[in-house]
Amino acid sequence: MKIKLLLLPAAILLLASCGPRPANQLSEEALLDTVERYTIKYFTDFADQATGLARERNNDRNGNIVTIGGSGFGMMAVIAGAERGYYPQAEGIERVGKMVGSLERLERFHGAWAHWYDADSGNPFSFSQFDDGGDLVETAFMVQGLLAARQWLAGKDEALSARCDKLWKEVEWDWYTQGTDSLYWHWSKNYGWKMNHRIKGYDETLITYILAASSPTHPIRPEVYEACYKKSGYYYNGKEYYGITLPLGMELGGPLFFCHYSYLGLDPRGLKDDRTDYFERNKAHTLIHRAYALDNPRGHKGYGADLWGFTSSDDPDVGYSSHHPGTPDENGTVSPTAAISSIVYTPEESMQVMRYLYYQTDMFGPMGFYDAYNPSREPAVLDHYLAIDQGPEAVMIENYRSGLLWKLFMSSPEILPGLDKLGFKYD
């Protein structure tokens, strides 16, 4: 098994194991603990040491690039690690504090952060040609982490908790409507609204609307959610796939990160509106992916109950791709984050994938499972790490084990009124 040496501290390289492991050496709880512990190292040992923020990936050709959304996921992972005793609680608080200090210093765009920053210069780093300014969706992923941190820090470090609160209240969600009935993803000092990307669902962006409606300082009107997010061509579905009804979403559901990113803090259990039960919707989406792998209509090597789950990740052919069923991108590549981060919806089925990858492949490395696996390629293991794939694994494993990040985020007093404003209900 090859290990990327780029940027990996020597201390964690020593933790890598080589080759398949003897089967069934660990109990389920011990395996979960091992995977969570190692995956969190991406956000501790491998974090940018100056800013504390999560590096975009471990093989980045662009330099020392940190990611805002991935850092929001990482903030929640750091909290989980501290509560698990993987390091002292004081160290977890210090790490969150370093991240918050960096977030305070980085340039913002009407309160929103850019998608990426160059950690060495502190300047925004363009995600694409016109995307060099505020990214409201990445900001939402960060704020999800900040609110969990604010609640966790209450009674531990009140001053740091208040700084998390201040950052959340400074995001101008309403400004990103341009005064219309739509919410827009990007704004740039150099290009203005040139990208003109309305945030429409159903996809990973639901948390953006929930936070925008919940904001005590810059809220959006409910009409924005109704007229923009819910009016896309892939919002309502209602079809059956493999005998499983999918209430919302694109054909076959789309990539599985749709079930993860918005729900790292937002608890889907019992969350409903007039269209769906969100836990059941996400469970259906996950089971459709599994059923697709069992059916294996394109005859890819390895697909089955041990190996399923398709989402955006690195790819052996094109670098980075979505891989979801029903598209040309579905090329035999399975992304561990897909099934593992769905453990809250499909615990037995996700554990089967985890056991297979851990015991029967070379996929487990110094910071958890590598990013992608394609047994029809040589080498089969894409031994890379990405923040936005590692974060959901660590956080959702913790939510499965204890519900910690769900409890913290949902204890935020702004969230239930915001959900009510948009027509959501909890059982």
Write the layout of secondary structure elements.
Blueprint: H1 10-13, H2 28-40, E1 65-67, H3 68-84, H4 89-105, E2 116-118, E3 124-125, E4 134-135, H5 136-153, H6 158-169, E5 186-187, H7 206-214, H8 222-227, E6 236-241, E7 244-248, E8 271-272, H9 278-295, E9 313-315, E10 319-321, H10 336-340, H11 347-360, E11 364-365, E12 368-369, E13 372-373, E14 381-382, H12 387-401, H13 404-410, H14 415-421, E15 425-426
Antiparallel strand pairs: 1-2, 2-3, 4-5, 6-7, 8-15, 9-10, 11-12, 13-14
List key phrases describing it:
single chain; alpha+beta; Glycosyltransferase; 2 domains; 3-stranded antiparallel beta sheet; two-stranded antiparallel ribbon; 14 helices
Characterise the protein shown here.
The chain has 427 residues and is of the alpha+beta class. Helices cover 38% and strands 10% of the residues. The protein folds into 2 domains: 181 residues, Glycoside hydrolase 144 (GH144) (Glycosyltransferase, Alpha/alpha barrel); 178 residues, Glycoside hydrolase 144 (GH144) (Glycosyltransferase), CATH 1.50.10.140. It is built from 14 helices and 15 strands. The strands form 7 sheets. A 3-stranded antiparallel beta sheet has the order 1-2-3. It is globular. 53% of the residues are buried. The N terminus is likely disordered.
